[in-house]
Write a structure and sequence with these properties.
The complex is a heterodimer of chains A (301) and B (285). Chain A has 301 residues and is mainly alpha-helical. Chain A contains 14 helices and no strands. Chain A folds into two domains: 80 residues, no CATH class; 217 residues, MetI-like (MetI-like fold). Chain B folds into two domains: 56 residues, no CATH class; 222 residues, MetI-like (MetI-like fold, Orthogonal Bundle). Helix content of chain B is 74%, strand content 5%. At the A-B interface, α1, α5, α6, α7 and α8 of A face α1, α2, α3, α6 and α7 of B.
């Protein structure tokens, strides 16, 4: 009897589980449908995108197979949107600038702020305390507060190029990074470092051969949080960079919209797909780190 | 050891400190100073006291409601987005911690939009919204409420996955025995939820609420790309309103900067409130 009851509940559970799985599968498809629709439309002629964004043919399938197939040929334009988009946005250049700025900024932020965080945790005086408090404070200041003055100063200091903006990102991103690193350094026992120093290591050598390897998990967290922010950032680079010369990807996409509001939707669809694909690939490969990074950042920030 | 490290200040701290000064400290202090000046650039300015702050509300002695409108529009936007995002992401997190087959795949899918930046995200949805709305001869900027709900949908799509991840971690941290014990004592689903899960999740709920609220108040990219503040500045959230004041018309930079100071105070107050709430919760436990 008891066994039978057990079997019955397990069967019911499994059934319930399947219902949820199917339900979630449908929800998941709906959830990424916008991306799929954009991919579909990126191959369509401009004129047909808005006529029926969800269909693939100008004719309904009920009008007969031949008409339907001819409709597909009429609506689709192959890679035309893509070549247009690449030309109009200077896609590869914008992609390159985005990549260059993101990678350089993240590397610089990781190295500089981890060093700074270690120093201000190990040395106790008024200056280090003040730096820590300022870093905390900077995290609650919205960008609009500093955008005008920051962009003008960057202009005066000639930071309006892909290398200069890296310094601006180090400055504006320092708060969160220093905060996350100090949180971790506080938990490291000081004995290992002392042993290294007694063995004759300079502080620099101690930091890079002993401390930095221990900091690696936090470094990954910081790298992912900063990379997500910098890669997608629009306002800061649009104000700091010399826009006529250097456009990052978000700026190039925003500039597809012309001053009078007209948008070439064919090219837009194509460039959106081109912008999304690298992110999705990156995400699928580094998913574990990204989710851990988001968690660590959210819980502490 | 402290003494040995101390000498290395220029190597360890100075690079970050200089960048921090350029990127934050000086612009921040100078920004507060400039909010009391009439200026067009940072080198040419004239002290005018509180005039900029007055001009936020009164233009030539007449009440200008643009900023006030944007203030309550933003507050409403933040409130609605907090409510919807947290409810939905919590519900999904509850279901995805039940050990359903394919949980990992669903989690991956729901989180994905979060990685796509605000500008790209907005153009995806602009196409969808307008192609559907054109059947009713409308666009997303037909009225401020179309724009409002459009932006709500966009931020939901972007943030539900993110909050879901945090909620899932929170739910998984609740000891299973606690829920089992409650069930043995005869508690139903709603009772377990109300008396065990929600109280244990309070720290997570606080974090997610404030993250979504702060995101709602600071929203810019989506606003710019999706509605551009249209129709007629009616869908301008605070951040875009400040940007528009500062760069839209010459001679208004000071007013824009003054608005930015108010905006900063507002966002800072929210952050301080969160900090107070989180620490008081920690004491209770």
């Amino acid at each position: 009897m008891a066994k039978k009851a057990d079997e019955m509940t397990s069967v019911r559970k499994a059934k319930h589980g399947m219902v949820y799985t199917v339900l979630f599968a449908i929800c998941s498809v709906i959830w990424i449908a916008p991306i799929l629709i954009v991919i579909l439309n990126s191959f369509k002629r401009k004129a047909y995108i808005f006529r029926n964004p969800f269909g693939i043919s100008t004719h309904s399938i009920t009008e007969g197979w031949d008409k339907f197939v001819r409709g597909i040929q009429k609506a689709m334009c192959g890679g035309l949107n893509y070549s247009n988009a690449i030309k109009k946005t200077d896609f590869f250049q914008a992609f390159g600038y985005s990549l260059l700025i993101t990678v350089l900024s993240v590397i610089l932020i990781i190295i500089c702020t981890s060093m700074c965080a270690w120093y201000i945790t190990r040395v106790h005086n008024r200056v280090t305390k003040a730096i820590y408090v300022l870093c905390l404070f900077s995290m609650i200041v919205p960008f609009q507060m500093v955008m005008f003055t920051l962009s003008k100063f960057a202009n005066i200091l000639h930071l309006g190029n892909p290398l200069g903006i890296v310094i601006v990102y180090l400055g504006f991103g320092a708060g969160l990074a220093v905060f996350l690193f100090t949180g971790f350094v506080k938990g490291i026992s000081i004995e290992i470092e002392e042993a290294a120093m007694i063995d004759g290591c300079t502080p620099l050598k101690t930091f890079f051969s002993v401390v930095f390897p221990i900091l690696k998990p936090t470094a990954i967290t910081v790298a992912i949080l900063q990379a997500m922010w910098i890669w997608n950032d629009y306002l800061l680079p649009s104000l700091v960079l010399n826009i006529n010369k250097y456009k990052t990807l978000p700026i190039a996409i925003q500039y597809l919209k012309q001053s009078h509001g007209q948008i070439d939707w064919g090219a837009m669809m194509a460039v959106l797909v081109l912008a999304i694909i690298p992110i999705v690939i990156f995400y699928l490969f580094c998913q574990k780190y990204i989710i851990e990074g988001v968690l660590a950042g959210a819980v502490k920030g | 050891m402290e003494k040995a490290i101390k000498k290395y200040f220029p190597v360890f701290v100075l690079p970050t400190l200089i960048a921090f000064a350029i990127g934050f400290i000086i612009p921040f202090l100078y920004g507060i100073f400039l909010s009391f000046c009439k200026f067009t650039t940072v080198t040419d300015f004239k002290w005018i006291g509180l005039e900029n702050y007055k001009r936020i509300l009164y233009v030539n002695g007449v009440l200008d409601t643009t900023f006030l409108h944007s203030l309550w529009y933003t507050a409403l936007f933040a409130a609605v987005s907090v409510l919807v995002i947290n409810l939905v992401s919590f519900a999904i997190a509850m279901l995805l911690t039940k050990g359903i087959k394919g949980t990992n795949l669903f989690r991956t899918v729901f989180f994905m939009p979060n990685l796509i930046g605000g500008i790209v995200l907005s153009y995806i949805w602009l196409m969808l919204f307008n192609s559907v709305l054109q059947h009713f001869s409308k666009t997303i900027v037909s009225t401020q409420w179309y724009a409002f709900w459009g932006m709500i949908i966009v931020v939901c799509w972007q943030q539900i996955g993110y909050m879901m991840i945090i909620y899932i971690a929170g739910i998984q941290n609740i000891p299973g025995e606690l829920i089992e014990a409650a069930k043995i004592d005869g508690a139903g689903f709603w009772q377990v939820l109300k008396s065990v899960i929600l109280p244990m999740l309070m720290p997570t709920i606080t974090i997610c609420t404030f993250l979504t609220m702060s995101n709602g108040f600071k929203l810019f990219d989506q606003n710019l790309a999706l509605t551009g503040g249209n129709p007629g500045k009616m869908s301008q959230l605070l951040a875009l309103n400040i940007y528009d004041t500062m760069y839209g018309t010459t001679g208004w930079q000071g007013v824009g900067q003054a608005k930015a100071v108010i905006f900063f105070v507002l966002v800072a107050l929210i952050a301080v409130a969160q900090n107070k709430l989180t620490t008081s919760k920690e004491v209770e436990q």
